[in-house]
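Continued from yesterday's entry.
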Amino acid sequence: MAQQYSNGGYSQVGGYGNNNPYDERGDDRQTGRYNNFAQGRYDEQSDVEMQPYNGAGVDPNAILNDCREVDRSLDQINSQLDNLERAFKQSISRPDQSTNEVTSLSSQVMTGYRALVTRVKNIKSKPESGSPRNAPQVGRVDRRLKQTINRYQTMEADFRRDSQAAAERQYRIVKPEATEAEVREACENPDTPIFQQALLSSDRRGQAQSSLRNVKERHEAIQKIERQMVELAQLFTDLDQIVTEQEPMVMNIEQKGEEVHENVLKGNEEIGGAIVKARSRNRKKWWCLLIVILIIIIIAVVVGVVVAINKKN
C-alpha cells in the first residue's frame, strides 16, 4: 500500500458537462464567484480588491484565487469519496454486485488528485507563494489535500480487508472443507487452478462460478486501487521535490533580505552620525559668530572710551 500522509492541503476536480473543472480556459479567474465561499477562510484578505494590478498586468491575488479553486475542488473530491465509500459498502454487502461502480468512482477520484497535485505544484513553484500574504493559504490547502488522500488510503485499506474476508466466505460456501491455507491462496490468487478445481469438485457449480467471477472482479479492483495509490505517492514525491529544489532559492532570497536589512541599518547609522556632526558644526559656527560679535562690541567700547578721553584733553 502506498505511503500514508499525515498532514492535511489543487485546479478544480469533479463536475461534468460544460463546467469542466480540469479546463483552465474557463472562468477560473472570476473572483466574484467565490465571494461567499468558505466563510471566514479568507477574511484577512477581504479588504483587498480582487482586481488585476493596474499598470503591472499581473493579478496580485492570483495565488489566493488558485487556493480558492483548490478548496472548491477538494469539496468535490470529498463528495466523490462519500459516493465511493457507499459503493465500497454495497460491494461488500452484495457479493453478486459488479465492481464497475467502484472502479469508475475510484478513477474519477484519481483524475481529481492528478489535477490537484499538478495545480498545487504550479502554485508552489511561484516565488510569490512563499510571501507572508500567500504562504498561510498555500500551506492550508496543501494540508487539506493530504487529509483527503489519507481518507482515500484508509477507505482503500478497509475495502481490501473486507473484500478479502468476503471472498473467503464465498469460497467456504463453495468448498466448506477447504483449509485456511487453501482459502487464503485461492482468494489472494483467484487465477490459480484452485478455484477451477473447486468448480469441478463442487455440487454447487453455479454458485462456484458466480463466486469465482466476484472474487476476480474484487481482486482486479483492489489491484487497480493499489496501483493508483502508488501513482499518487509518486505525485506527492514530485510535489515535495519542488519544495526541496526551492529551498536554496528561498535561502538566497532570505540572505539577500538580511543583507538589505543590514545595509539599511548601517545607512541609518551613518545618516545619524552625519546629522550629529552637522549639528555640532552648526553649534561651532554660532559660537564663532557670538565671539566675533563680542569682540566687535569690546572694540567699539574701547574706541568710544578712547575718543571720549581725547575730547576731554
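--- second protein ---
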Amino acid sequence: MPPPFQFRGNGPPRGPRGQNSKPEFTFRPPPRPISERPLLRGMREATPELLFPETGPKPAPKFASLDDLSDSEEAEMDLSDDEESESEARPRKKRVVALDGNVESAQPILAAIPAPAPPAPKWSNPDPYTSLPPPDESQHKRVDVVKLIRKARLAAAPAQPKVNDAVVDNVDFISLGAVGDDTKPENQPPKNAPKGPKGMEIKESAAASRKRTRDDLPKPLTTKTGKPLRRFKMDASILDDWMPLEDQNPTPWINSVTPLNVATRLHNEILAFYNWVKPHHFEQIVRQDIVDRLERAFQKRYSGVQIHAFGSFASGLYLPTADIDLVLLSTSFMKTGIRAFGERKGQVYAFAGFVRTSGLAVDGTVEAIAGARVPILKWVDRLTGLRVDLSFDNDSGLLANRTFQEWKGQYPAMPVIVSVIKQFLLLRGLNEVPTGGLGGFSITCIVTSLLQHMPRNQERNIGSLLLDFFHFYGRVFNFENTGIRMNPPGYYNKVFENRDRLSIEDPNNSANDISGGTKEISLIFRAFRHAYWSLKDRVDWMNDNNQDASILEAIIAANYDEYIEQRHQLRHVFDTAPQFARYRQPPPPPPPLPVGESPPPPPPTGPRSMRSAPGVRA
C-alpha cells in the first residue's frame, strides 16, 4: 500500500539551463475508488449457511429458458415443474427398471428400446464444396419476445380468487320478454329490395357540397389552416353535384334564343347565357347592403375605418352564388400605407369575436384563418345567407378592380367570355386557387391577353372568340416556357419561374405573379382542349342535321336549380326587408279611362246580395 503522500524535492536539472528550474513540491496522490478501500477488500471465510434463514415462499424464477417457451396463442406454457414425481424425472431406462424390481423381467423391454444416437460433434470444420448452406432464418417463424414475456408473467402470477359481483352478474335481473325473443330493427326494407333509379338516390355529399344558406353551418375542413378539399376530377369532367337530372332543363337560357343559322347561333346563345347569369338589379342592392351594414358595425368600435369590396362583386361580373370579397382598411393604412390590422393572430381572432357578437353572421359560421399568408375571416350573412370573406389592410384587390374597369371599356366582349369561362371551370371544381384552380382575376387576364393580340374586327362575333380562346390555350400556348405580360401586352420566356405553373405578370406590380398558386394548370388547359373539340363537333353536327338545340350544352350543361333558389331567396329579402323599401318601385297606376265612360259599379257585398243572387239559397 503506497503512502498517502510523497516528497520528491528538487532533482538534477533537466534540459538546458534556465528551463524547468521550478522546484517540485510535495503532492498527494489522487483518492482511490471506494471499491479498493481495505474495509471492502477484506476476505472472509465462506459460510455454508445463509446469514438469514428463508421464512417466506420461494420466489418464482425470474427468467425462463427459451426452449421451454412458446409464442403461440393456443399453446400452453410448458414450464419446468419442481413438483414432478421422482419417477418422471428419471431417464426412460431407469423408469422401466423401476416398474419391476426384477431386472431379468425387464430385459425384453430394454431390448425393444433403441439405443441413443451418438452425440454430434460440438464443432467441426465443414467442407465448403460439399456442405449445405446455412439455413435461412428469414424463412422460419420469428419468436415474439413480447408474447413470451407476457405469458411467463401470467404463468408466474398467483391465481386470484373469483369475486362474485351481484350487480355485474345481474343476479336479480327479471326479463320481461319471451325467452329467445331476438330484437330486430323495425321499419327496415328487405335485404334485396330494389333501390330505384340511381339519379333519385339521396347522397350525403350533396348537402355538404352545395351552397351554404343562412341556416347552414360551414363546410367541415380537414386541417386547421382552413384549406378546402380537392373537389375536381382527374379527367376534368363535371362534378356530380352539378350533373343535370333527367327531367330538368340543363340550359335554362336557351328559351330566349331565336333559332337562326349555325353561324350566328353560338354568338346569340353566349349573349343569352351572359344576360341570364349576370347579376340582377336587386341582387346588387342586397349585396351592397351587406357592405354597408358591416362598415357601420365596425365604425362604431373602430373609428375611421372603411370597408371596400373587390373581386367579382366589385366588378359586377359574379355568378349568383359567388362570395363577397371585402377588405377592412385602417386609418393608418389609408394615410401612410403601414398595416395596422391583421398583423397579429390575436387581432384576427378579436375581429372574429366581434363579428360573432354583432349579430351579422349565422351562429357557428365564423371562421378565422389567422395563420395564412393573407389573414382572412369567413362567415355566412344572417340576413341573406351569402358567404363573406374579409381581409385586412390590403389594397391589391382595389388596384386590380380599377384595371378591370379599364379593360372592360377597351374590350366590351371580355366580360361575356369571362362569364362563360368562369362557369366552365366552376362546374369542374377548377375555379378555386386554394385547390389549385384558376382564380377570377387570372381568368380575366388570359381573356384580355388574347383580345390584346387579336384584330378588333374579330370581336364582333363572340362565338368565334370563344372557339379561339379554347383553341389557343388548349392547343397552342405553352405555359412551361412562356409567360404572359399584361402591361405592355406581350409574352416572355420563362427562366426562373416554375415551369409547371402558369405565369402571369401582375399589371400593377411586375414582381408579382398572380397565377403562381394554380397548380392544376395542366389539367385546366387539357380541359380547354377538350372543350374546343366538343364545341367544334357540336357546331358541325347542328350544321349537318339542321338542329335547333343548344351549342353550349356540350360544355356547360348542368343543374342550375341552385342559382334559381339563391335568386328567389335574395328576391324575398329584397321584397320584405324594411331597408330596401326605398328601392322597391310602387305598382304602376291603372290606365286612364276614356272620356265619357264611367267606372263599373263595385261588386255586391253582404248577406243581402248573396240571397238576391240567382242559384243561391238563403
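The chain has 20 helices and nine strands. The chain has a mean pLDDT of 76. Will compare against the first tomorrow.
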